[in-house]
């Protein structure tokens, strides 16, 4: 039994290839029929040729007529009406070659459209697959049994293991650490004390804990999210194809003109000729080709758009609603700063914390270990590791007892300042302590993606008039992110239902796009005109209900997709307009009897070739952002890596400034300032000079102008001026101590340098380093 799945795997690609080839069979069959008929006509067998062409016409007429009747039954009116009338008219007047040529054109358009539609996989399988199926329930004697979820009743005692999804709504029996971002959008881990409520669908990010069910599975939070997504998908209006919108005006005009030609001349062949020339192949061919070309291009940029209708709507979008966590931000905690006790070593504090956390499945532990390894620190295998829920992890590292997690009791002054800074910034703090007390704190953040602000600007340039941030996070954090990326409005503490309601309200005014990554975003993605999921890092549920999925962890690919969609749609409209304009001229010629059906069919083929060639332009162009050369890409990666060293200097700069501010009489002040000046001179200034000489000139091409780096160059001048000023201030301290009158100016220089450097690094990472297409956006800062 165990071998059966692996034996079946090789057959799957073969079956898929067979299905793909079979989808193109009608086009190949009809085309072959036309060629066989032509060969028979050349061989002077006209009756046989006409029979073959008539069969080709009938083969196209039957499915076209069925499709037309089905559409009319559902009160949908499309371009198929003219095609059916042209095919039937060609058969009726014996213009079999004209009918066969029309049949091939129709088959080509349908094959291209089917190719796009086969990409559509709108379902909720991943959302449902993630839903818990079983629960660990405590029996009367304390034994643990695994039971189906529908057997969990209110007041049942459950056990949730590390990494488990909470099965039903309830209250926790003991302290628990939870990742609630999947339901609320809140990026930080949440500590729940005994007796607090917990929602189903959230993930246990700490040690196992017990809980008491307060709702059954059907009434719980996660089940409600699934129902919302199902309801939104079920009520989502079908997309109107671009070709059908043109048909609403073109079909009546064609029928009237054909009728007038027949009525005024008494010759039904004129009516057929008008219908043949009017067969909307520029719509049936050029439009799908332009749209499929757009689908192909966005796929190469790392965006999978599920169907041509979604791409058309993306090209018409005017409003964007975007989630915060995992979309505008990285969605994963990252060490932003390490604060240590006076005289402490940042690297040593990080090494101790990461060593203890190596064995923990906690998401914050993963961030600490990753940060330590990125810095090249050697971790020690801990001994005697224990985990206390809600408090943290402790263990011995090199014989030293180290605790990582929360801290209790009276904090020293430096630690209290770090705590306040953490709360104001909206970060998380992981405290590192030994037997003597706190050694330091590692401050964790969910950083804004460096490419977020540039992406928002590009989206505006592409035609999006309104951009709204909707998030389950706190208002203060949401507003900070909104200010950084430049959106128009913010809706914080937004539940899944509220997101759906907001989408509905915005969708009434304009074509609306929603971008998100979590299960909590799935209902809103399904409700929007175009739902876009961050598939590289987001939940598979959101990807399955979305119309487009970003397969790479880069937000700027969304701007690529919008620009390509608008360009492809513009080419499609252009091709359709030119093609139909030429067809209208030919229709008038046919109506006065100057263009017989067969000649009209081949003229229509000529128009088709013209519009197809124009439609193929959608395979290129449209992107405003230029690609980066390999040499420039290598420089971007190198200078981005150097920013880590610059940030180390920044951390010491801030410590020195704080020391001068709190204890200016200390004998440690002047040596600390001298060391800070040395590091600025030897590490930061050479980095800035190299950027000015090498990187900035190389960015002129991808940025479109050398003036694009002028602001950054001005920042380099200011940084050097401030460093020189700091050196001049040091020369005034000749006796080994700072004079009281020097302190204000020295503090202004130190804190000014800290602010200018931080802003400059952030701007470079947003404006320049995010241009590197091979670099994950979350690796910066």
Gyration radius, to the nearest Å? 33 Å
The largest beta-sheet arranges its strands as 10-22-21-20-11-18-19
Annotation field: number of helices: 29
| Overall form | elongated
> Could you list the spans in which at least 5 consecutive residues all have pLDDT below 50?
1-13, 119-127, 234-240, 775-781
Q: Helix share of residues?
A: 55-70%
Quick tags:
disordered N terminus, 781 residues, 6-stranded antiparallel sheet, Four Helix Bundle (Hemerythrin (Met), subunit A), Calcium-transporting ATPase, cytoplasmic domain N, alpha+beta, single chain, 7-stranded mixed sheet, Calcium-transporting ATPase, cytoplasmic transduction domain A, disordered C terminus
């Amino acid at each position: 039994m165990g071998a059966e799945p692996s034996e079946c795997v090789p057959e799957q690609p073969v079956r898929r290839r067979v299905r793909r080839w079979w989808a193109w069979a009608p086009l190949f069959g009809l085309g072959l029929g036309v060629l066989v008929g032509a060969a028979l006509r050349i061989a002077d067998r006209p009756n046989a040729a006409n029979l073959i062409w008539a069969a080709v016409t009938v083969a196209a007429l039957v499915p076209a007529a069925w499709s037309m009747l089905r559409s009319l039954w559902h009160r949908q009116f499309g371009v198929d009406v003219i095609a059916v009338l042209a095919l039937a008219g060609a058969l009726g007047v014996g213009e079999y070659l004209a009918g066969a040529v029309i049949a091939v054109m129709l088959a080509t358009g349908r094959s291209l459209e089917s190719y796009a539609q086969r990409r559509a996989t709108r379902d909720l399988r991943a959302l449902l697959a993630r839903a818990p199926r079983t629960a660990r329930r405590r029996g009367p004697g304390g034994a643990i049994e695994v039971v189906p979820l529908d057997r969990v009743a209110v007041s049942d005692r459950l056990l949730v293991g590390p990494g488990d999804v909470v099965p039903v709504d309830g209250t926790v029996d003991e302290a628990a650490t939870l990742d609630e971002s999947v339901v609320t959008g809140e990026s930080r881990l949440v500590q729940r004390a005994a007796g607090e409520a917990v929602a189903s669908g959230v993930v246990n990010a700490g040690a196992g804990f017990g809980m008491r069910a307060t709702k059954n599975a059907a009434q719980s939070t996660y089940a409600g999210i699934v129902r919302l997504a199902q309801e939104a998908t079920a009520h989502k209006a079908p997309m109107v194809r671009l070709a059908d919108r043109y048909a609403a005006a073109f079909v009546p005009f064609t029928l009237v003109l054909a009728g007038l030609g027949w009525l005024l001349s008494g010759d039904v062949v004129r009516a057929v000729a008008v219908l043949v020339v009017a067969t909307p192949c520029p719509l049936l061919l050029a439009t799908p080709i332009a749209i499929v070309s757009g689908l192909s291009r966005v796929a190469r940029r790392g965006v999978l758009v599920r169907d041509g209708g979604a791409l058309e709507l993306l090209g018409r979008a005017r409003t964007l609603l975007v989630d915060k966590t995992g979309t505008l931000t990285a969605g994963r905690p990252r060490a932003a700063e390490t604060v240590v006790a006076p005289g402490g070593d940042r690297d040593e504090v990080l090494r101790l914390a990461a060593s203890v956390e190596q064995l923990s499945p906690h998401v914050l532990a993963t961030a600490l270990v990753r940060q330590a390894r990125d810095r090249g620190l050697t971790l020690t295998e801990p001994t005697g590791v224990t985990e206390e829920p809600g408090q943290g992890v402790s263990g011995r590292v090199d014989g030293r007892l180290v605790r990582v997690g929360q801290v209790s009791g009276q904090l020293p002054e430096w630690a209290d300042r770090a705590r306040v800074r953490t709360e104001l910034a909206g970060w998380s703090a992981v405290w590192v302590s030994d037997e003597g007390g706190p050694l330091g704190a590692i401050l964790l953040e969910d950083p804004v993606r460096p490419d977020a602000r540039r992406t928002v600007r590009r989206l505006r340039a592409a035609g999006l008039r309104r951009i709204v941030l909707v998030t389950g996070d706190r208002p203060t954090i949401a507003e900070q992110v909104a200010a950084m990326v430049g959106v128009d409005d913010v809706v914080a503490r937004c539940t899944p239902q509220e997101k759906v309601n907001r989408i509905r309200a915005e969708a009434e005014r304009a074509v609306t796009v929603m971008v998100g990554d979590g299960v909590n975003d799935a209902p809103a993605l399904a409700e929007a005109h175009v739902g876009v999921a961050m598939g590289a890092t987001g939940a598979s549920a959101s990807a399955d209900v979305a119309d487009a999925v970003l397969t790479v962890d880069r937000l700027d690919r969304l701007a690529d997709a919008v620009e390509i969609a608008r360009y492809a749609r513009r080419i499609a409209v252009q091709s359709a307009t030119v093609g139909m304009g030429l067809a209208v001229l030919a229709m008038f010629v046919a109506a006065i009897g100057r263009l017989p059906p067969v000649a009209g069919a081949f003229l229509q083929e000529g128009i088709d070739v013209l519009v197809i060639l124009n439609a193929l332009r959608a395979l290129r162009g449209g992107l405003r952002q230029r690609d980066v050369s390999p040499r420039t890409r290598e420089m971007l990666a190198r200078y981005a890596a150097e920013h880590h060293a610059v940030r180390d200097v920044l951390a010491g700069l801030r410590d020195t400034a704080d020391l001068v501010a709190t204890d200016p009489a200390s004998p440690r002040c002047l040596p600390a300032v001298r060391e800070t000046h040395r590091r600025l001179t030897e590490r930061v200034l050479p980095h800035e000079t190299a950027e000015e000489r090498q990187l900035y000139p190389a960015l002129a091409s991808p940025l479109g102008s050398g003036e694009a780096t002028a602001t950054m160059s001005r920042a380099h001048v200011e940084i050097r001026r401030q460093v020189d000023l700091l050196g001049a201030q040091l020369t005034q301290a000749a006796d080994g101590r700072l004079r009281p009158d020097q302190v204000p100016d020295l503090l202004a220089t130190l804190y000014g340098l800290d602010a200018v450097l931080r802003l400059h690094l952030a701007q470079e990472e947003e404006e320049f380093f995010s241009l590197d297409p091979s670099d994950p956006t979350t690796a910066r800062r």
